[in-house]
Write a structure and sequence with these properties.
This protein folds into three domains: 59 residues, 2-Layer Sandwich (Alpha-Beta Plaits), CATH 3.30.70; 112 residues, no CATH class; 175 residues, no CATH class. Helices cover 65% and strands 5% of the residues. The strands form two sheets. A two-stranded antiparallel ribbon has the order 1-2. The longest helix has 36 residues. It is elongated and about 70 Å long.
C-alpha cells in the first residue's frame, strides 16, 4: 500500500462476517487482521485482497517485514515503466503546448491563455488536430497506470482518487479542454509517484532508525489515536458529500444560465477535491514517526492513543503503562515523554489544518471558476506529500 485509498478499498473488501478487527500501517505497508477461524480462513482473506489488484502475502504475527515482494512473487509497487508512462505523458503534453504556441500570438497565450470552460470557439475551439492528437496521447499514457485501479474501485462501487482523476481528465477532453485533460493525467501520474516516494521515504527513514521496516512487532503502535478515528469517520462522510455537491454543481446552475459546459468543468474540479488523501494520511505517518523516534530514546509509546494520553497527562500515562520507559532510558525520559507527545499532536494538528484548508480553498475557487483543473490535482497531491514530510520531522526527537 502507498495510498490511503488502497487502505479504504481493503477495508471495504474485508467487510465480511468473520473479520473482527482491521488495523492499517501505511508506512509499514501492513494490514493486521483479526478474524474468527470458524467463519473465515487466511487463504480467503488473501484472495479477497488479491482481487483488488494489490500484491498481497501473509506475515506471521510479530514478524519483521522486509522488502521481500520478489521473494513472494510480488512486483515492486512502482516499477520503472510507471516512470516511463509519466515521462511520456509529460513529453506529449509539452508537445501539444509547443504546437499550440506555434500558432498562438504569444507564448503566454499558449501556456495560460486557455479558458476554463468548454471549447466554444477561440483558441480552444480552433485547436489543430496535431496538438489534439498529442494531448489525447498524453491523456492515454498518463491514465494507463490509473485506469486499472479505477476500474477495480468501480467494481466495488468505490469513488477513490483513481476514479475521480480518470473522470476529470476524460471529462475535460469531452468538453474540448484537451490541454487541461492532458495536464490532469500527466500531473496525477507524477504526483502519484511523488506520493509513493514520500511514503517510501517514511518507510526507509523508520527502517534506518529501528534497524528493520516498521511493523516491528509491538501491538501498541497500532492503537489508533482518537483524531485518527475521527478523520476516518470524517472522510467517510466527506467524500460522498463532495461528490454529491459536484453533481449538484453540474446540474443546478446551468438550469438558470445555460452554461452547461462551464459548470461541468467546475464539477470536475469538485470531483478531484472529493478524495481526502492528505487528510487521511496526515495522522498515521506522524504517529509512526513519533513512536519510532521516542523508542530510540528508550520511551515506548503504545500507539497514537498513548501519545494523546501522554500529551494530556504524562505521569498518568506512565502509571497506566500507556508509555513504558525501557532499560537504559535517560533520567529525563518521563519529562521527554510529555514534551514529545505534545509536539506530535501539534504536528498532527498542523497536518489536518493544511489538508482541510487546501480542500476548502479549492472548493471555493472551483465554484467561482478561479482554479484550473490541473492546479487542483497538483495542490491535492502536493498537500499529501507536504503532510507526510512534515510528519517525518518527528524522526528527529528533541
Amino acid at each position: 500500500m502507498d495510498c490511503a485509498d488502497e487502505a479504504s478499498l481493503i477495508r471495504h473488501v474485508l467487510d465480511v462476517p468473520g473479520i473482527l478487527h482491521i488495523e492499517f500501517d501505511l508506512v509499514g505497508r501492513q494490514v493486521s487482521v483479526s478474524y474468527d477461524p470458524a467463519l473465515l480462513q487466511p487463504d480467503e482473506i488473501l484472495a479477497r485482497v488479491g482481487r483488488t489488484g494489490l500484491g498481497v502475502h501473509a506475515h506471521a504475527h510479530g514478524e519483521h517485514v522486509h522488502d521481500d515482494h520478489h521473494a513472494h512473487g510480488q512486483a515492486p509497487a512502482h516499477p520503472d515503466r510507471t516512470w516511463l508512462w509519466a515521462v511520456a505523458s509529460g513529453a506529449l503534453m509539452l508537445t501539444g503546448w509547443a504546437l499550440d504556441a506555434w500558432r498562438a500570438d504569444t507564448w503566454v497565450e499558449a501556456l495560460v491563455g486557455h479558458d476554463h470552460g468548454p471549447a466554444e470557439g477561440g483558441a480552444a475551439g480552433t485547436r489543430p488536430i496535431t496538438s489534439v492528437a498529442a494531448y489525447a496521447a498524453s491523456i492515454i499514457l498518463g491514465l494507463a497506470p490509473v485506469l486499472p485501479r479505477a476500474l477495480v474501485s468501480l467494481r466495488y462501487l468505490r469513488l477513490d482518487m483513481h476514479v475521480l482523476v480518470s473522470v476529470s481528465a476524460l471529462g475535460a477532453a469531452a468538453v474540448g479542454q484537451w490541454a487541461e485533460g492532458a495536464a490532469v493525467a500527466c500531473l496525477f501520474a507524477l504526483a502519484h509517484l511523488m506520493e509513493a516516494w514520500s511514503i517510501e521515504r517514511a518507510r526507509i527513514a523508520v527502517s534506518e532508525l529501528v534497524g528493520h521496516e516498521p511493523g516491528w512487532g509491538e501491538d501498541g503502535h497500532r492503537t489508533s489515536a482518537g483524531v485518527e478515528r475521527w478523520i476516518e469517520r470524517f472522510a467517510a462522510v466527506y467524500t460522498p458529500l463532495v461528490t454529491s455537491a459536484a453533481l449538484t454543481l453540474v446540474v443546478v446552475p446551468p438550469l438558470f444560465d445555460g452554461a452547461w459546459g462551464t459548470w461541468f468543468y467546475r464539477g470536475l474540479i469538485f470531483l478531484v477535491l472529493a478524495c481526502p488523501c492528505a487528510l487521511v494520511i496526515s495522522t498515521p505517518v506522524t504517529v509512526v514517526a513519533a513512536v519510532t523516534s521516542a523508542a530510540r530514546r528508550g520511551v515506548l509509546f503504545k500507539g497514537g492513543l498513548a501519545l494523546e494520553r501522554a500529551a494530556a497527562d504524562a505521569p498518568g500515562a506512565l502509571a497506566r503503562h500507556d508509555v513504558v520507559l525501557m532499560p537504559g532510558a535517560a533520567a529525563d525520559a518521563g519529562t521527554f515523554a510529555g514534551t514529545h507527545a505534545r509536539r506530535a499532536l501539534g504536528v498532527i494538528r498542523q497536518n489536518v489544518t493544511l489538508a482541510l484548508l487546501t480542500k476548502l480553498a479549492f472548493l471555493v475557487s472551483a465554484v467561482m471558476g478561479a482554479a484550473p483543473l490541473w492546479l487542483a490535482v497538483l495542490a491535492d497531491t502536493g498537500a499529501t506529500v507536504a503532510v507526510t514530510l512534515n510528519g517525518l520531522r518527528l524522526l528527529r526527537a528533541k
